[in-house]
Amino acid sequence: MKKVLVVLVALLLVMSSNLFAQNRTAKGQIELSGGVSFSSSSYSYDGQHQYTMTTFALSPKIGFFVIDKLEIEPQLLVVSVSISEEGGGSGTASNFGGIFSLSYNFEGESNLVPFIFAGMGFLSNSVTDATDLKTSMILPAAGAGLKAFISEKGVLRAEAFYQRTTNSGGEEKLIDNSFGLGVGFSVFLK
Questions:
Q1: From the CA atom positions of the chain, what is the Rg in Å?
Q2: Are 163 and 121 in contact, with CB atoms under 8 Å apart?
Q3: Residues 134/125, Cβ–Cβ less than 8 Å
Q4: 188 within 8 A of 29, measured Cβ to Cβ
Q5: What is the pLDDT of residues 43-58, one digit of tens each?
Q6: Per-residue pLDDT tens over the stretch 104-130
Q7: How does pLDDT run across 11-64, given as a tens digit for each residue?
Q8: In a designed cystine with 133, which of 14, 32, 52, 125 is the match (CB 3.0 to 4.6 A)?
Q9: Is a pLDDT exceeding 90 seen at residue 155?
């Protein structure tokens, strides 16, 4: 993991020179971005295997620059979770929703563009053999990141975020406070 971070930091430093045209975050620009993630986790209690959880998530987003440096970024969230319990039991959960964010891009003279964002959203929840699930509300979703232009239109993104979800997993009054890191790729269309 340390080697990957060192390579990413080195790549960002190399790209910090002024190689491409400026004003990439001007009014009218469109940015397509997103990510896909997959994880598999094994849980045990007191040395005994309990269950395995596999998660697949898809999160495309499209950004519209409404004025210079200010971007509206609606994001689609599609998450599928599969749980296999010790002894043969299994279950699935699906979440579908979105987050509506505003981001401000601090474009300067280099190919590195820091940004901050804040937004809100929702998730519908569907769990095997569960009824009466509530809609999860996401408020706030906030963070900061860095866009590194690797070409005139291609961008590597890295961000740190905080997200608060009420009725997490469809359970009433269950609150999820998440801190995370994300990486992705963007393409500017104009």
A1: 19
A2: no
A3: yes
A4: yes
A5: 888 888 888 989 999 9
A6: 999 988 999 999 999 999 999 999 888
A7: 555 544 444 445 889 999 999 998 888 888 888 888 888 889 899 999 999 999
A8: 125
A9: yes
Token pair belonging to 66: 């409404």
Assigned token pair, 52: 């395995």
CATH class of 2-188: mainly beta
- Give the pTM: 0.80
